[in-house]
Amino acid sequence: QVQPVESGGGSVQAGGSLRLSCAVSGITLSKYCILWIRQAPGKERAGVASISTDGDSTQYDDSVKGRFSLSRANAKNTVYLQMSSLKPEDSAMYYCALGYFGDCTLVPYEYNYWGQGTQVTVSS
Fold this sequence. Notes:
The chain is mainly β. It has no helices and 11 strands. The strands form 2 sheets. Strands 2, 4, 5, 6, 9, 10 and 11 form a 7-stranded mixed β-sheet that branches. It has a 4-stranded antiparallel β-sheet with strand order 1-3-8-7, with no helix packed on it. The termini are far apart.
């Protein structure tokens, strides 16, 4: 069973940085699109950053453009989300999701395998 495992969440002050990791074992990660999704209390899940199978193409939600950077190390079966200039509104549970298709979108429901999430809390 494909099970992404997220790590790297925590508490940080506004303006700070965090790097989230998503590790997956038992599969060839390079065959999958990756999407980071976040969900804050009382809000719907939203895709914030996606990366293509080869890592050459990324997409970002407007709310994180210029502050978040997504990269992948296929040889390590790991994906990284570097988050900088964090704001209180970035506080949420962050999930890593994998999709086995060609167009790596920002649409959460299109992705097949989700992790358990890691909490990010940004204080003002």
